[in-house]
Amino acid sequence: MIYETVAAVDLGSNSFRLQVGRVVDDQIYTLDSMKSAVRLASGLNADKRLDAPSQARALLALRNFGERLRGLDPGAVRVVATNTLRVAKNAAEFLPLAEEALGFPIEIIAGREEARLIYIGASHSLPSASHKRLVIDIGGGSTEFIIGKRHDPQLMESLYMGCVSYTQRFFPDRKIDKKRLREAQVAAAKEIELIAHDYQRLGWKEAVGSSGSARAIADVLEMNGMNPNGESGITREGLDKLCALLIKAGSAEALDLPGVRSDRLPVLPGGIAIMSAIFEELGLERMTYADGALRLGVLYDLLGRFHDHDMRDSTVKQFRRRYQVEADQVERVEATAISALTQLSEGMPSEVDVQFLSWATRLHEIGISVAHNAYHKHGAYILTYADMPGFSKKDQARLAMLVLGHRGKLEKLGSIPAVDSAWTLVFCLRLAVLLHRTRDDRALPDWRVSRSGSGFLLELPAGWLATNPWTAAALGEEAAIWKQIGRDYVVKSRALRKGE
Asked: Do residues 124 and 151 make contact, with C-beta atoms less than 8 angstroms apart?
């Protein structure tokens, strides 16, 4: 379905932001935006757990956002959470409260997925160019580095350093001196050093900063004439002057400069330290600024899904190539699995269930590239921990669960709620894999599936099981496996109809 109005919510480590846009001819025009300086990262204690005050600030902001989003279709809204909720040990406890406050599901995305979306947003807000760009986004808890061309990212990385975390770590009392600033710069430089070679080898023509820290630094440099020759954006010379002024002032609050926003002051020192380390390690002399970042990237990624340009489909296709999945077998299994789901849904399966079942069938054998023994476990491991552009961590977990459950015992899936449609998808995938064990194009019998009690009923033509004892035995074993978790799996011979 295509929507005229779409919305993105970015639950960042420093700020929560909402952007509502109108879709016109494949372009998105901003209708409204909201921001709340939640500073979620400052609420992480030594045990990496979000404290009560930070959760309260977050829930208040989400209720306000929820009021603005009220009435929008769930398919037109995408909510992403970044570094702080990636690392918070109590994120799973906080997430249901957050979703209830906002009224929409929340995806915790991986660092490289965040980088991909940032680049898409930045590239859509910049003038069209044929050269490669380096886009850098200093967030509250992480910093993303992306090299790309036009709207296509080519190299992506996310480093665990941000303006909130670095300010807390190196300037806990908000006091700044030369030694502390240098320690922060050196710590950031050590992180950047790990990726610098690969980035310099690929190269870029233009460096671009996005989001709050880059914008705040650029504003200060421009409004106070610190850049040489009146240049815009961020320059090495301007950064050096700003660092000197910061040390002289002794704190960000004591900086008496136009352009320093009050909401940015508490985290400005960490952002400046990281930015100066980036310039030093990557040999930058200047950096322009892009208005678009994560939120705009989420909106354009959402728009792509409406027009059948879903990045998740591209990722699945790429994984099939990488792990050398046998295409013919996957196509056979997918067709049968989707047929089973359609029958069980009385011809009206949900689009989401069809998507996940299709992705799972296409990827269910990727673990064979590691070892055939327990390959479903290898496949599930890959899908759990690999970078999968377009997929949230929750999506990856669901996909990994389907692949893990497509063979073997089912007790390992015991954490799935009894009413979750995942059980239906697991049944469909397991049945399809079983019916195509011969891995050839021989015709299947006229099989039918339906729901039966707490499980499923499989009907096969009379006499077919007797002439196919291998499959009959496998179906008997399958019924026993489902019985062990308290679910019915009935295999029944259907009387022949006239003409069969």
From this structure: yes
